[in-house]
Amino acid sequence: MSANHPIRNSLQLAWHFYQQQKHHSSQRVLRWVQGILLVFIVTLSQTSASIQAYLSHNLANLLGADLVLSQPLALSASQQAELAAMSQQIVLSQSLTTTLTHNGQWQRATLKAVAEDYPLQGELRTATSQGGQDSVSTQGPAVGEIWLDSRLLAALGLRIGESLSIGSHRLQVSRILLHEPDRLMEGHNVEMRALLHRQDLQQFRATDDIIQHRYLFAANTSQIATILQWQKAHLPAAQVHHKHGAHPLALFWQRTENFIGLASILLFFMAAIAMQQLTRAQLQQQQFFSAVCLSLGAAKKTVLRISMLQWLFGLLWLLPQVLAISALCHWLLLQWLQAQAFVQPGVAGSFANLAWQPDIVLAVKTIVASASIFFVLNFPLWLALWQCSVRQLIQQQQRSISNAVLFGCATLVLAGVAAHYSDNGLLTTMLLGSMLASIALLLVLSWLALSLGEKLSQPFSGLLPFALYMMKQRLISKTTQILGIGLAAFLLLFTLMLLKDLGDNMAAHQRTHDGNVLVSQASSAQMADIQLWAAQHAITLRQHKPFMYAQLTHINGGQLADVMQKPSDSLATLSRPVRLHWSEALPGNNRLVSGQWWHSADTNWQQLSVEQEVMTDLGLQLGDRLGLVIAEQYVEFSIAATHAYQSGAGAITFWLQMPPGALLHIEAPQYNMASLELQPEQFSLLSQLWQQHPSLRMVSLQELTQRFDSSLAMVTQLISGFAGLIILLAGVVMVSSVHAVETKEQKKNSIILSFGLSKRTCLQLNIIEWLVTGTIAACGAIVATWLAGFLIYQSQFSLPYHPDIGWLLGTLTVILSLVTGLGVVLSKNSLSGSVRQLLAE
Amino acid sequence: MPLSALSTIALTHVSQTFRHLEHQVQLFQKLSLSIEQGQSYAITGPSGSGKSSLLMLMAGLEQPTTGQVAYLQQGRSLPLTQLRQDIGFIFQQFHLLPELTALHNVALPLKLRGEQGAEAKAKAWLEKVGLGHRLNHKPQQLSGGEQQRVAIARALVFQPKFIFADEPTGNLDSKSAVDVADLLFACCQQNGAALVMVTHSPQLAARAQQVFAFNNGNCALLEKAQLEVQSVC
């Protein structure tokens, strides 16, 4: 090696060895592991970036205004005057969720009422017939007219020109509503839609507080800043969106990316297992090469540099393929999201115009980050090379890799991935906790099964005792193999079975415990009528709980937006008004987690009990102060207790609860939630109730399960795609684990042949080993799935979990057959050992 | 054991060739010899002369290019699959399974055959080869000589009729080599097994009753008693 050009020489040598070893099976498997992970991470980041780019573009174009302020109540005259002075123009739209009825059919829909000044910005598009020509309307419907979206028109069996009764008022359906320029704010809303004149809304006799008031502002940048300042001081509970702010869905998608990213820890864990196995398989060859180089006078760092460059060449060779496949996956995912936008506009946030635009800089950043991860996972191999010496050539002993180093590197990678994607302590803990629990379970199960199996079969002779004995002797490598297969099986089972069971059980349970109609918001007058109506028709009223709306604006004196930076489910919900319940005693379907529930004699009314998950998500503690705006009145409460849901007394529960004494100090509209049990023939009676109270928020179990099923279907599709990756990686883990012990296995089989036994015996032994591996992995996966199901049902829904035994046994058989079949095929090389090979050594 | 009950491996006019880089390489041709149970044989010759191939043919593990290998018992010809059950191997590199203790290595062939009392028999054999005190030691805890003793015990524990040994002392120091050779010959004799060794050591070869010597593609039987060379080709 010339001393003048050490780098060039190293590069040449590394390239030479890379070319030589490129087609070795262990290098091929390594490329698969790295390739799968790179494709996953690059696709995830690119898709997420596309969505975020779309959302910011969407925000600028679909706000229908420069700034939108929305709140349940109308602005007072003075507030309106102040705001008018700060802006160029203000346009009001009012919306109300209601149930429309026509010819005995009913459909829940959101009505939006506007005047002649609407739209402020953007295009209002309509058509005069179903599938007819799309035209731009300069203003909304005239008084006495209503425009329905095509789904609503079909659901009510209406045609253009017909009349629709709302309360006692009749409106003529004159156009089909295609697009409202200010729909962004309702991006999550799955309701069907209708547009009418503001004057007609008054016919509803709806109280002002159930109508959402939305003010669209035309304002320049400095005016926007002034209005924002004003809103913070005067209307902290109002929701504000402006052209330069964040999209309301941005946090949701950030959270989705984080969730998938966190779930990818499992992929990284499997990759770590596979790479650890491959490292073991490559070690001997690499150490031999290093020892030969060292014996020829090369420096250790040269040897190490060659090995690293060789690894780098492998990675670089992968990149064109990874980028091409990721681009394709990225495109497919966007197509899928667009398709979902048409099926479920609410869930996907209406991504009809999502554009495929790869972000090269982001791709490079992602690849560099992933390469660092692979570097850490490969580090144990380089450490072993650093410790290698010429002595190895003399003593024919290879220096093994310390398990502590392997474990440390894997932990470092997993912790890094978790830290990067973690946005919420509770979710991270739950996800990692469940993964760790399943890993621990599989480890314990492997150890127990192999140790007990070996112990019990010790007095016996034959293939099974021998197989068990050998597996016990190779406990670490076998356990790793079982872990890889078991985790993959666990995730698949969890995905497919739990989601299926969840849907079935939820529907059945709701039917049994909570009736089949849920009243989600009824005023006192509406509730009184419901009670009367129920009594008249012998309908059972199962639950009935009062509440008022409250908007969380401050935590310990600080504004919510300033205090809470990280997205969470709780925060997303708390950014809108939530239901605040009051109760003298702890409700039957709640249990006290910490703190003290108030006594009837307690004079302190400014105390709250907060649901446990909200406490964790927002990082709250007993004694913290929460500032709530209730009907424009700011009230500060201190957290006195934490509660959690428990089953047995109905499903209606509240995040925030206060002592009834507070009602004396708070003046706000009061509502009720209730559940009813109707006989099938009584469902037709519901239209009476809706006719009487169109603004009554009531939903049937059938509608609820339909909504649940469509969300579930989307989640299932998404997770199934993820599960596909897991299967692929599980296959790679199996291949790498076979590779890791291939030499040993081949030798073992050759020795068995030297005892005069046949190749058939070796095959039988191999089948037994894979059967045992598959059985332990499948049992572990099934137990882990059952445990996860049990815990999720218990903690989230407080339901007993009854898995389908037939399904479980069927799954066990499928996993066993797949693992054994694939295992035997992969072990072809190990089974090709011969006595001649032993003679040749 | 009556002579008629002894088994024989008979090679008749066997030739072995293989192709290497478009060239036909002939190891030996028209070789006829027989291996009698209870006798000892040595195969000598330079590296690459075909010693290992001959061993494989004798053990019925490979087919000759031409000629026949027969397994005879009481004058009857038995299938070669039967021969494979009656053979044991000892290797230069010992080839003990590193995960197993000495006891389990020796018990291995018995356990795989489903025999009862495998460990008791294995223990007895280890005591016979002088390793009664090393039962629970793993191969890496044993010296080369000790590992080869374990390998001898393992090869003989299931009482094969033929033992094939490939350079059994090639990896040992001279003292260990002598001890292992003594043990090997004694055990085979006590067990009534034929011993076929491939070796480069003239001393070891000299202890065999018959020696087949390979040289330049020819194989010769050295009759030690008469000290004359008879061609077997």
TrEMBL record, chain A:
The chain crosses the membrane at residues 259-278, 311-333, 360-383, 404-421, 427-450, 480-499, 718-741, 767-793, 805-826. It holds the Pfam family FtsX. Residues 722-831 form the ABC3 transporter permease C-terminal domain. It comes from the Bacteria. InterPro entries: ABC3_permease_C, Membrane_comp_ABC_pdt. It is found in: Cell membrane. The keyword Glycoprotein does not apply. Its main location: membrane. The keyword Protein transport does not apply. It is a multi-pass membrane protein. Keywords: Cell membrane, Membrane, Transmembrane, Transmembrane helix. This is Permease.
From TrEMBL, chain B:
It comes from the Bacteria. SUPFAM superfamilies: P-loop containing nucleoside triphosphate hydrolases. It holds the Pfam family ABC_tran. Gene3D superfamilies: P-loop containing nucleotide triphosphate hydrolases. The keyword Transport applies. Signal peptide: none annotated. The keyword Transport applies. Residues 9-232 form the ABC transporter domain. GO terms for molecular function: ATP binding. This is ABC transporter ATP-binding protein. It comes from Rheinheimera maricola. Keywords: ATP-binding, Nucleotide-binding, Transport.
